[in-house]
What does this fold into?
Amino acid sequence: MWQQHFNKGDTVEELTKSNDEATYCYHAATILRSPAKKRKKKNTLYVEYRTIKVPDADGSSRPLREHVDASRVRPPPLQTTAETGRGFGLCENVDAFDGNRWKVGSVVGILMNSKYLVVFGDKKEQTKSSQLEIVKPERVKLRIKYGGGASDAKFSKGKMVEVRSDEEGFQGSWYTAVVVDSVANGKFLVQYQTLKTDDETELLKEYLDASYIRPCPLEIPQIGYFEQFQEVDAWYNDGWWVGRIFKVLDDYRYVVHFGCTNDEMTVDHSKLRPHQMWIDGRWIAASVHSSELELKSEEREVKIRKIKFCETMPEAIFSNGTLVEIKSDEEGYQGSWYPAVIVSSMGKDEYLVEYQTLKTEDETELIKEKADALYMRPCPPVIQRLDRFKLLEKVDGWYNDGWWVGLISRVLDGITYAVYFWTSNEELQFNHFDLRPHQEWIGGKFIADFLKNSSELPLKPKPGKLKRHDGLISLETNYFTKGMKAEVRSDEEGYSNSWYPAIIIASKGTGKYLVEYLTLKSYREVELLKSDREVELLKEVADAQCIRPCPPVIQRSDPFEPFEDVDAWYNNAWCVGGVCHVIKNKGSVYAVYIRSTNEVLEFQHSDLRAHRNWVDGKWVVPCQVVMLIIWVLLQGRTL
It folds into this structure.
């Protein structure tokens, strides 16, 4: 029995026996008075029961109060995720709630609908509730729910899903989760991606009936504004809430009416998605015919039909009031895009624009300036990524009032990510809704990077393996330290003279280091599902003479010159090449010869850096003679 000091006001449970002396029971009670040292009965407590009432003189009832033996009193058992986040097994000792008390028993049978056959003493009783709960504090976070309806849904481990809440005040809202495991009778253990436990230390896990779960909806690009009275899902309080557009405001904002709470709220465009319903194993869009949107119940497969990007003229003509994005080539901001509005045309291919996020130095008004049409584009169509971004997926991150292009370098807990920016050699963390799928404005239309049909790059171009020595690398083997940023060279055919960003993990001795690449991925088999593969960043041992420190980040605003040696960001690495010429009518775009592939490709100014060689512990500017020879050889080639 418990032997401890209790104080006035403590919540406790008092042990009793049933009338037949065969079953132990616990009754919830509150300490009204603890034993005083001067009292004769030091081992008694004066308690008030929460569930036992007695008649009063006026005919009403009141909670029973009495003195009880302190040795028969215990604090409420602690609840842990391991104890409450599962079903119960045969012969397992449990406390079962029977009306107004917890009875000590043992599971002797597992029935349907979250019911169990429990023996108390020498009697067997079937619980009448659809929930059999372990003894726990008042606020329950993990328990088995029974939805009351049959479901034939099948959700595999690791599948991203959405879970419906029926909690008061949250009815009808949907929360992103991952299926952790399946249990009997169509129930699943899920881990929420946006909800945490009360102590905020870990993501919340819960057992749910399949009727509470659905696949993540299809990704439907919303081109232009949502329409008035259109049904939408709005991201609010870490979940998706069904509402309807009540009013369309300026700057891609809306007043949304929520029928479940009869409230209205102003919501940004980026936090809305077209509403869809999961009916008979497929998605039905609220404003699109059902034949256009389908999703198989056993595999999540995006099928976008009859949804086209803006097919406009090859050269955009911008009218006054048009919302556009302006590319910056300013030092330190190269390659970033900033929203602006066309104020007026200033002649051929020049416009006066007003930025929407950049202000004058005195912060009194928005910046207005002249912009060349070559540095402008329409705003990309909004593509909601309802599932998580993938490792090494190309994205735009909202940072310092603009959109910056980077790669997903780590998928973190919940809906956060680490994004690697090659232009600044930085890795920053972003929330899911501060990212958007990267799209390129090509030939008068936007091409989404994740929808390109290009074949996937080889997983392992095998950098870090020394095949030759070109005399340019001479480095002490103890130069690199744990956690240091570096670049690792590949000598493989088709990848030679390519440098991959990496982090030093550990020294392996004899001139070798364990490195983790920031832009290369590896697959490993998932233990329980051999047919599935999990993506992670590539780690491997590299020769010290294939490793160099990261060059200093120098973003130049001056244009690159013909014959100048450069490094071009290509296939997730810095590839050595040389500038052939500036391409006219495309802004700061260059034709660059790539040595490793023997081809000439187009590159933005922001995807180039001045080439440097690491020689005897310092950075050296190379001679331009090599590129001059290459240019001469390429004169007969069409660029």
Notes: The two ends are 88 Å apart (CA to CA). Residues 230 and 338 are 29 Å apart (CA to CA). The first strand starts at residue 11 and ends at 17. The first helix runs from residue 81 to 84.
